[in-house]
Amino acid sequence: MANLTINGKTISVDVEDDTPLLWAIRENVGLTGTKYGCGIAQCGACTVHVDGVAMRACGVTVSEAVGKQITTIEGLASNGALHKVQQAWVANDVPQCGYCQSGMIMAVAALLKEKPKPTDQDINEAITNICRCGTFQQVREAIHAAANA
Amino acid sequence: MNKHVMPKLTRRGFVIGTAAAGAGLAIGLDIPFGGPTVVRAADGSPEVNVWVVIRPDDTTVIRIARSEMGQGTLTGLAQLVAEELECDWSKVVTEYPTPGQSVARKRPWGDFSTGGSRGIRTSQEYVRKGGATARVMLIQAAANEWKVPASECTAANSVITHTPSGKTTTYGKVVEAAAKLEPPADVKLKDPKDWKIAGKGVKRLDTLDKTTGAMIYGADVKLPGMLNAAIKDCPVFGGKLKSYDEAKVMGMKGVKKVVRVNDSTVAVVADTWWHAKTALDALPIVWDEGENAKVSSESIAKWLAEGLDNAQPAYIGNQNGDAKAAIASAAKKVEAVYNYPYQNHATMEPMNATALYTPDKCEVWCGTQNGEAAFAAAIEASGLPAEKCEVHKLILGGGFGRRGMTDYVRQAVIIAKQMPGTPVKLLWSREEDMAQGKFHPVTQCKMTGAFDADNNLTALHVRLSGQSILYTVRPGALVNGMDTAAFQGLSPSGDAAIGYSVPNLLVEHSMRNPHVPPGFWRGVNVNQNAIYMECFMDELAQSVGQDPVEFRRKLMSKHPKHLAVLNAVAEKIGWGKPAPQGVYRGIAQVMGYGSYVAGAAEISVTDGSKIKVHRIIASTDPGYIVNPAQVERQIAGSFVYGLSALFYGGCTVKDGKIEQTNFDTYNSMRIAEMPKVECVMVPSGGFWGGVGEPTIGVAAPAVLNAYFAATGKRIRSVPLKDQNITFA
Q1: B394 touches chain A (CB under 8 A)
Q2: Integer Cα distance of A84 and A86 in angstroms
Q3: Which of A59, A96, B423, B425 meets the CB 3.0–4.6 Å disulfide criterion with B70?
Q4: B 37-96: CB under 8 A from A
């Protein structure tokens, strides 16, 4: 049994300590916006914020996440208003299949917190999520749009 | 705003997840509360016809039979219906009919299959007629109510106006009466030049839920009491499951059952998927790998190379003149051998399906590119008749051809059948997804060109050797044993016609089918055929000291549409004018899926091995464009998929198994590696081509030809990582 703080709420989950945070979020907490893509921290589909830092939830264990503030895609909007990254995503019609986009958006939200006006080079270094549909052009445009919003 | 909303499944009180995501439309075909002839949606709103349901508040529900996997077809089809319907686009929502409903109603929605870039082009006519027919009925209902001739009434934005009197009403007010009218026998469709909704880059209908985490994919399905399954099929294709020791894992946390799925596959069912997967990894399994365990990439390559020998039998896909004789007597001959490897689709969402079986009913929830094939798989695997089966389609986390197959559906049903009354979600691990792909087939190609003394190309011989997809996947489609699809992009005519006229031409295929299961992979055979043809065109041009574009143009006078897109990219990239210092250009063209496409790339190369792609120009002529914003995304996405395969792809075989296990060994391009793709749309009208796939054909050859321009080195083998060439 572990207490996780997810999107501001403390939730008790009955899992082994070494369970990847991804699966606790998806299966025990029931928030399925965080996606499974590879399980080896390569693709970024499971990106969440742990104490404000973008992390790949498949590579973080539940025991490592205890006591930390975890934010998932479902917790990014506040008071019913979409986060500016989500707004830019809607305005720029970014997603195709959309499966990688939760992780992409979480990675971008963390980037903008650190670098409010990222250059293309900043984006290249920070955003390493895989998108098989190839939405990168729209992702880049939407990041700049969100930064300038 | 528009939102892609699909009705909650209400039967048995199941609710899928939090979002109103795809469980098919719960039609009230058997609930005749509105009169015997009116078919009603779950909320009681009447169908005007199978494509259009209108609610009292003027919300227009448009039915979409094809699958949405990111390619935007759902939005495009809705645009086409809405265009003819003259409804208010801001009040459009969509829903999927289910395959079971389709069969029960004698397939009024036609084909559900979504592949071959056919989503729009092969349904555009009947969905537009569906919209137009509904419009005529709605106007007639208003005219009847007003007792005026329908010819005096017009419709726009879901409002009907009687022009002489200025009276107005809305679709929502007359829909009950309209639904009881006989549909008109014939309707006239708009000229595309008069389109107001279609032809415009309107926003997708499914974006919001994809930005909030609310969109429910197959992997996200939740049903009350649901268990989760992880699965392992014999990694050697054709091998068998000999034994497993379930006692070793039955005591592990959450484990409920170990299931022998078929003679090569075992699954563990547990409370959570993580528990199922953990137990499966711990399960001792003994495989009988069989003869195929001796197969390797090297042994396959050797066998394919033998097929390049003209003495070996081959199917002829395109022929004019006598290429062999012309080559034998040529003043000059150029020859090169190319190859292209297996590729995995690697959809971001691994294969999965959820099934619930009872002796009276079998239901499946899954992402599928072919709802009817998934339905057939459910019928077959459950052993129940069609009327007791149903498939609820969900939005796909990528398809690329992989989800046209139904192996994962069949597995889910077989597992659920061993646990009657308990819904079971089967999810493949990424490792299983990599191991059990339906792979882009492996081929080699010997290209031979011949010139006369004046450096005119007199003959071209394209000798393909390798795997047929149809032989395994759709043997009924072979023509006297020949796989006509193997000649995509090289065919004499049709959807994938060659763009060059050569006096003596021979295109042939020595079919060799290794044990690795093939599948349709985005672009299918255009991928390698365009590399072979377009890189060799550059080789031929170079061998006679001619400019690659000028050389092509001389062969393209009878192929004006191929030539038009080639010219469009050449002009846009500045072909013939100096490139920036250190930047080199490559170009390619091909026809596939009924569309003409060309691409040009500007690259620089450091140390001969580090490629930076600076700029990509792409041109396409698909006849008509329904949503230019989505077409642009398909074109740019085709470059990402095609260049990922070129640089990082390639699935290799060792001991009969695929060696790549995850994205660490089967990598995919990241944002840093991808330049902007500038699109030049040249829709010439008069035909309907696809856009999801054709452009992928030009991605690799444009870059490979630019690499030659930069380095003087020809690359005739994919992937580049095997030659220590990567992105800068």
Answers
A1: no
A2: 5
A3: A96
A4: 69-72
